[in-house]
Fold this sequence. Notes:
The complex is a heterotrimer.
Chain A: H1 6-23, H2 29-52, E1 68-78, E2 88-96, H3 98-117, H4 125-144, H5 148-169, H6 174-201, E3 205-207, E4 210-214, H7 217-221, H8 240-255, H9 264-271, H10 274-299, H11 301-306, H12 308-327, H13 332-352, H14 356-387, H15 398-401, H16 403-417, H17 423-437, H18 442-448, H19 450-467, H20 483-501, H21 504-521
Parallel strand pairs in A: 2-4
Antiparallel strand pairs in A: 1-2, 3-4
Chain B: H1 2-24, H2 33-55, E1 62-66, E2 79-83, H3 85-108, H4 115-134, H5 138-156, H6 163-194, H7 199-207, H8 216-233, H9 242-245, H10 251-260, H11 264-273, H12 279-300, H13 306-327, H14 330-357, H15 375-389, H16 395-414, H17 418-442, H18 459-474, H19 492-503, H20 530-562, H21 569-575, H22 577-584, H23 589-661, H24 668-687
Antiparallel strand pairs in B: 1-2
Helix pairs in contact in B: 1-2, 1-4, 2-3, 3-4, 3-10, 3-14, 3-18, 4-5, 5-6, 6-8, 8-11, 8-12, 10-14, 11-13, 11-14, 12-13, 12-17, 13-14, 13-16, 13-17, 14-15, 14-16, 14-18, 14-19, 15-17, 15-18, 16-17, 16-20, 17-20
Chain C: H1 6-26, H2 30-55, H3 59-89
Helix pairs in contact in C: 1-2, 2-3
Amino acid sequence: MAGFPILSTIIFLPIFAVLIILLLPKRLKTSIKTISLVAFLLQTILILFIISKFDFNLSGVIKLEEFQFVEKVDWITVSNSAQLNLNFKIEYFLGVDGISIVMLLLSGIIFPISVAASWNIDKSPKGYFLMLNLLNSGVMGTFVALDLFLFFIFWEIMLLPMYFLIGLWGGERKEYAAIKFFLYTLFGGILLLLTIILLALSSSIIADGISYKTFNLIYLMDQNNYIKNGYLSILNSNHIRLLAFAALFVAFAIKLPIFPFHTWLPDAHVEAPTPISVILAGILLKLGGYGFIRILYPLFPEYSKEFAFYIAMLGSINVIYGALCALAQTDFKKLIAYSSISHMGYVMFGLASLDQVGVLGSVMQMFNHGIITSMLFLIVGIVYDRIHTREIAKFGGLALKAPIYTGFVTIAFFAAIGLPGLSAFISEAFCYLGAFNNSDTRLFGAISLSGVALAAGYMLWTLQRIFFGKLKDNLEDFQDLTNREIAMLIPLSFLVILFGIYPSLLIQMLNNSINFFVIFISN
Amino acid sequence: MATINLIFFSIPLSAIVGFILTFIVPKKIKRIYFIEIFFSLITLLSSLYLLILVLSKNFSSIHFSIDIFKLNSNFDLIFNYQANKTEIYLIFLTALISFLVRLYSIEYLKNEERLKNYFVVLSLFVLSMYGIILSKNLFSLYIFWELVGFCSYYLIGFWRHKEAAANAAKKAFIVNRIGDIGFFLSILIFASTYKTLDLGNISNAIGKEIYPFSQKEFLFIALLLASLGAFAKSAQMPFYVWLPDAMEGPTPISALIHAATMVAAGVILISKLFAISTAEFLLIVAYIGTITALAASFIALSQNDIKKILAYSTISQLGYMFAALGFGAYSLALGHLIAHAFFKAGLFLSAGYIIHLFEGEQNIKKIFIDKKKEKILFFSFSIFSLSLCGFPFFSSFLTKDSILNFSLIFSIENNNYFFSASLFLASLLTSFYTFKLFFQIFFNKKEHNFLNHARHISSDNKTLYLAPIAIFAVLSLFYIFSSTPFDVNRSFVLNDITSELKLLAIHDFYYRHIDNTKGDFLNALDLNSLEFNQKYIRYHLLTTLLSLLMFSIGIVFAAILYIKNILKPEKIKKKLFFIYKLSEKKLYFDELYDIIFVDLTIYLSRFAAFIDKNIIDKTIEFVSYSTKIIALLAKYLDKYLIDGTLHLIAFIFEFLGLLIRKIQTGKVQTYIALSVLIMIIIYIFITN
Amino acid sequence: MTSISLQHFLILSFILFSLGTYAVIVRKNILVALIGIELILNAANLNFFAFSKFKNYQFGELAIIFVIIIAAAEAAVALAIFINLYRNFASINPDKANTMKE
């Protein structure tokens, strides 16, 4: 098994599925769906296999030798351009450590569920599943790529399918939402590209006696690999390094999303079809957080420490502002979208605390929130499938007609509120604990606590408006959950409860990596 | 040794197993509750055994810990649990009351479709209650704290098709959440300072004078924040608004959660923090407790719904417990908690029975029960009422009387008579509303005929109703506390609890004189001193006489108004209209909160949404709009300038062509002329 | 009285030539144009004769014969064209035949 490129298999399995689907005629809808489902489930199995073989004692974060399942191949090498001094080396470099593995696990869980949620797409399912597979590939690739060029490629691969998926299979204002999402994220991508290029230009590694510029992330984390007085050398006292930090920060802030770069999210989430909302909220938002941890913080540790105060401030603004906006919404899906913004704020200030418990909480929050918010969007989708409206005012008393559904909704809503015993409590608590340990972020940890009451407010209010009280007239024939829907919600509920009661499963995976990360950044 | 551990662990284990089994077993199985009854019986018997051990002085503490996180960092998050004698008493209390309530619920809810859910959440509640009692680690406490909040939410809103119930549940959870913010904030403060949340370690550190952020004031702040959680959970001022609304839930739930156990959790929290409390903090607790005791009994005066009266009575008695803690009477507070739990649960169960008899009618103005027909109910109810008022020979006399005594001494020492005056006044009001309730139900024959339609329940059903009530009545008599009805010092329960205090490694801030220069409120009482004991005995007789006086005034007034109709209540109402309104409208707190919290929050949220949609989003749209404008400019530039140049060139050529075309006239003679001309020109050129 | 020299002949032939050119280009009667053409040809003839006489140009007389023959043939063809022209355009004004105008 040594050397079997398992990560590449995971990434390219959907591409393989794409090829098969391309060849199939349009009318074989069930086969297309089954092939996608099989491909995604295979991915999940491979990911679980990786986890079982993973050595959690290795931390990884900047140490090349401690990454696991590494595949490192020279991909594009330009040498002998001695005139311009522009030799560079782009590698096909994949590898996982504790943090990536958790993200992979999340993707592995959410994607098959999204296929189950997409089962009833009737408008050109072939195109839909093509896009979905492409998206999957991009996501998996982004989480394991360790060469910045490769990272960027996978980052951009995710954009285009999302555009089509929202723009063609979405709701009323789908074109507006799709274009807004695409341009906004593309803008972030451009900032990302700029910074990547700057980084590469300032780097210098020696191989075979020739000095190359490299895109390899691990090498770039080591300050010895920079040209003295290059653009981004840490010794360079001009402001380019600060600008690069800001640019990269904005690029990932758009994805996370951080106030005030968040306005694409409500539109994109609301107009996207249910399974796409699930993927968008469950996985794509985490890319922002992952980008922070994997790329921004290790490359610019001094600024990360310096600006911790402001980052935490933005995080707590997210929490409170998102909760307030959610409270004012009349559209169920938009409410959930804003609650997503609110929960991602925890990731921010947990990370800013640069405390072991805080960063642990931040990564756990990414994972837990992914599962919980997927549940929430599935729940909205169920209602929308039946009544074709998302206006909360039109609902009432659904508990009488659909008790099983209400049960799942209760679990999801209380998980979002942060009830102990369900996964999000531990991650949020750790974020707070971490934020409080660091004197920069202490104030914002305290302020964000009010978000806890606000979350209870809007969630319970919504729960009551939609499910309790008298049944509204137009809801007489509201069906309870179908088997497919139950099959989607049960694994998610199970995971929410499992990680709520026994969080050390997650903590074991992350502990060493995060320990090392914190020590490195606080160097 | 091993048997004790086995028996002890059977308590949480059977609670967990009962919960899981009831959850898993499908709904269709009839009598699904038997699982729960079985396991709670096991719990009851185990706790009874442990209690006997305690009573026979054969008990030693049990400790265990769970490392649920396995964090390998310097932050210690191992959950420690300990069971000392106090905890055994409280566990027994919870086990007994929950068992009896479960039995009662079988009958009360026998036609309920969602009975399984009820029992599942009920067992989760009891499990979490054990967690709160046993927790020595603040984080673990917080987890179970929130869980009981959730169970309370679910059970209050159990009949979820009722709008009022859903609202009440939401209100309860949110008010509790707000208190929990304070609690969690204090956890954060402790965690960041001491790197541990274990109360034992924290008290050791405080003993070494390590304060949060190196300032004693922050210890006070942290304690105050934690107490916010306690006040919210125990419905003290100003958080009490959720408890009266919580009466929308089924009555057995009101008995279990909102009388005996969950609302007592606040008292339990403060008692756990007692070891690290400062004098200023305990003063605040005393104030809140006293104010609550008075205000709640004031509101209860004007209420006419059985359950609401009992709810306010609960709030008031909890106020007594907090006041006791504030005065430093740790064991009295917990003792009163135990006594109160029994008679209040009994009262609620009786209320449930009465409501059942009258098919849902809860207004005491419309209820009358013939005492000859319902003898057990009558006797039990009278026992409960007398116990509630603190009448001698009943259980709470020992505790309540002592609390009043303490308050008197405290007031005299600190020259602030607010505490004793309020508490004595509260006891007067307590006896008034208690006997208003009692007389209205049993002595005030109503004119209207419908009161005689009390349902005739067949006798076998009655057992499940009346047996728990009777058992609680038996437990409301004095001997559960002490072998003599009058001497609190001989109370085995209280002595056991007091002895724990030494185990808690008290850091006697409270016992030192703090800041003598400030004088007044901070005069401490050295509870161990001979001087104190003398004072105690000296004032004891005075206290007892005073409290009996209050009692008599109250009962006489109630009798006047409600038995023989000597004075019509309506006339009094008119005279004291303003006061009456104040009492009836619950001191206008609900309206106040509506404006401050609900309206403000909704306003803020609409404002935030407005900003989001119209300012931030509009900024993005402005960016895109201006990009469109620029693109339009570029388009025009392209169309008119660049393309235009092309067209200009084309036009020139066209013009030239047009011109040149004119030569082709079609006339031969022109062509000839032209050719001649050109020949001449060529000739000239050639020859030149 | 000067003797008649070559110059006189050339000037005469030039005058005849220009008169003939005038007739071809300006006159609005195709028959007059034909006369003009004859004039031009005869002017050329005169020129040839003058040079043959004064400069011993042997070919000159021969050329005259050629030109006269060709003039005759060409006049015949021209008249045939003019008759066709008259049939198509009903006029002997060459300006009327301008259908090849651009």
